[in-house]
């Protein structure tokens, strides 16, 4: 039987990122992992994942769900760590700035 760790290893995303894609696209976890894997291999696909997470983050903040917003911030931070090229591009979805570019 395939474990969640196996799925993460195969698709190149961590559990929080898969969960964020699943939430954003209303997909089961395995389908979200497959979509994430597909997007990572497309031109600007990581941008789309960033935008999904940013949109979910904005929604969580709008409804006052600080706990979930914190989880999404970590998913976004990990995505920036795994894909440093995203730091050079502005986020379009939720207007979320990479952590090292955020001002006071």
Q: Explain this structure to me?
A:
With 104 residues, this protein is mainly alpha-helical. The chain has one domain. It has five helices and no strands. The protein has helices at residues 4-11, 15-25, 29-40, 45-62, 66-82. α2 (15-25) packs across α3, α2 (15-25) crosses α4 (45-62) and α3 crosses α4. The radius of gyration is 13 Å and the shape is globular. The termini are far apart. The mean pLDDT is 82.
Beta-strand content estimate: under 5%
Poorly predicted runs are none
Oligomer state equals single chain
How many alpha or pi helices?
5
Shape: globular
Structural class: mainly alpha
Please provide the count of β strands.
0
Task: Provide the helix percentage.
Answer: 55-70%
Give the number of domains. 1
Q: Gap between N and C termini, in Å?
A: 47 Å
Pattern of helices and strands:
HHHHH
For the largest beta-sheet, the strand count, sense and barrel status come to: none
Mean pLDDT over the residues: 82
Rg computed from alpha carbons, rounded to a whole number of angstroms = 13 Å
């Amino acid at each position: 039987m395939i474990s969640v760790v196996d799925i993460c290893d195969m698709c190149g995303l961590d559990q929080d990122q898969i969960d964020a894609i699943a939430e954003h696209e209303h997909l089961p976890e395995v389908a979200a992992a497959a979509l994430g894997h597909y997007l990572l291999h497309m031109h600007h696909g990581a941008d789309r994942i960033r935008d999904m997470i940013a949109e979910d983050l904005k929604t969580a903040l709008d409804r006052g769900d600080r706990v979930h917003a914190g989880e999404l911030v970590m998913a976004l931070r990990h995505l920036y760590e795994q894909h440093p090229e995203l730091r050079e591009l502005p986020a379009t979805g939720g207007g979320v700035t990479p952590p090292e570019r955020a001002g006071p």
